[in-house]
Amino acid sequence: MADRTIQAGDGDGGVDGIRTFPFPVELSVGGVGMQVGPMGTGRTWHADAPLHRVHRIDFHVVMLFDDGPVRHMIDFAEYEATAGDVLWIRPGQVHRFSPASGYRGTVLTMQPGFLPRDTVEATGLYRYDLPPLLRPDEPRLAAIRAALAQLRREYEDASTLPSALHTSVLRHALTAFLLRLAHLATTSAEAARLTADTTFTLFRQAVERDFATNHSVSAYADALGYSRRTLVRAVRAATGETPKGFIDKRVVLEAKRLLAHTDLPIARVGVAVGFPDAANFSKFFHQHTDMTPAGFRAELR
After folding, report:
1. Closest CA to 51 of 26, 25, 70
2. pLDDT bucket at 64, cuts 50 / 70 / 90
3. Longest Cα pair distance anywhere in the chain, in angstroms?
4. Which of 130, 163, 173 is nearest to 36 (CA)?
5. Cβ(146)–Cβ(154) under 8 Å?
């Protein structure tokens, strides 16, 4: 999964300066709007498009890896793929190849207009919400490899069928492969969502239990057995905010409850929500409410 965010200006002077390159039709066969073959270090979309530079493409790229690890940037997040993994880059996505990685496996490039509209919808070609990095289990990997191998055989066999029929066969073989890939992408996204839901649920329960004594994201992550990065992703997916923001919001809520509904001295309220020092509690409360604890209490009474 994505593990590092890259600034838009890395090496290219900002998003507006990133070039978009078209499908390399001069490398296609018989005008068919797709290519499939082995990955290679010499592959390029255009003479002016060094692949280690950030750029966009107006076509699909699917890479099935035979080796790894390979680090590849997509939409300013860096992904690490290894043998058996699939990277699916969609038109318009910003990406960059890693010059330090050896890309070995099979790559499919495809123009968006090569398939009919109903196939485009069925295969989710423009589901930008789906993850670009896919990790199929062994049965699905075997099926995807077989479908891609069949597509490659049909692509390379330009002599046994008339041109129009060859193109039709290619469309069918490509559709079969993309349907398998789309099913993998959607089920992977659902599995990731369920994992994130479970992670967030456990985090929320832990915060509810321990917020009065524990305000540390790292401590919660360690206690739950997750990396800090995994926890951040899960909480952001569920709430749109960071784990720290979630913890702070719960602490503020409890402080407001105690200030409004009890007569505890403000210093005791601070202690009750994890701030032994009254000054630190007042500073924290003011940062999150634009009011002092005393001001908040006075306004309600």
Report:
1. 70
2. very high
3. 89
4. 173
5. no
CA angle 159, 165, 166 (to 5 degrees): 45
Residues in the chain: 301
79 CB neighbour count, 10 Å cutoff: 21
Tokens for 73? 């940037």
Q: Which band of pLDDT confidence, cut at 50, 70 and 90, is reported for residue 129?
A: confident
Place of tokens 């006075």: 298
Pairing of strands 20-21, 94-96: unpaired
Give me 212's structure tokens.
Answer: 């009065």
H helices of 211-240, in order, are 217-224, 228-239
Q: How far apart are CA 270 and CA 280, in angstroms?
A: 8
- Report which of residues 99 and 205 the model is more confident about: 205
CA–CA gap between residue 31 and residue 157 (Å, rounded) = 14
Give the closest residue to 181 by CA, choosing from 121, 139, 136. Answer: 136
How far is 266 from 271, CA to CA, in rounded Å?
Answer: 9
Q: CA dist 115 to 103, 108, 150, 168, Å?
A: 27, 14, 18, 10
Whose tokens are 């990095």? That residue is 133
- Location of structure tokens 């078209």: 22
C-alpha 97/C-alpha 74 separation (Å) is 9
